[in-house]
Structure to design on (151 residues):
């Protein structure tokens, strides 16, 4: 599998993970990792209850997830789950409302906030410290470049 994390210890033998067809885990089932090893930028895993190639082929395209609480505990200071930013209010340091995060895009590995204003106009803003002052539970405080609101 292609890991979407730098924490490869999450795939250690004996760990329980969730197997799902979506990143949100709506249809997740719990499964135990029997063994794992890194190989050519991937992680090869042997999952409990996957005893044949036929059964293994049914897991192609699925996501291996960890419970949300475990992911939150593993998050380091200043790290964010990009999907959790969607729907969050976006304001300037003086409290001027710019809109809400409609989506988070990741072209070329750089996160971009897609911000929709009250007129449903959508603008992109890089999710970088140059523009993002603070991420709070209730809002993201940003200082967009001059002229950004007129784009």
């Amino acid at each position: 599998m292609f890991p979407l994390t730098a924490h490869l210890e999450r795939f250690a033998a004996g760990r329980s993970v969730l197997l799902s067809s979506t990143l949100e885990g709506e249809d997740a089932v719990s499964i135990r990792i029997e063994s794992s090893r890194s190989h050519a930028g991937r992680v090869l895993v042997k999952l409990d209850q996957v005893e044949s190639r036929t059964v293994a082929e049914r897991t192609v395209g699925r996501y291996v997830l960890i419970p949300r609480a475990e992911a939150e505990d593993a998050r380091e200071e200043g790290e964010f789950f990009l999907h959790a930013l969607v729907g969050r209010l976006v304001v300037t340091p003086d409290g001027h409302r710019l809109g809400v995060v409609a989506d988070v895009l990741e072209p070329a590995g750089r996160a971009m906030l897609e911000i929709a204003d009250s007129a449903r106009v959508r603008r992109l803003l890089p999710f970088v410290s140059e523009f993002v002052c603070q991420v709070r539970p209730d809002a993201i405080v940003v200082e967009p470049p001059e002229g950004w609101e007129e784009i």
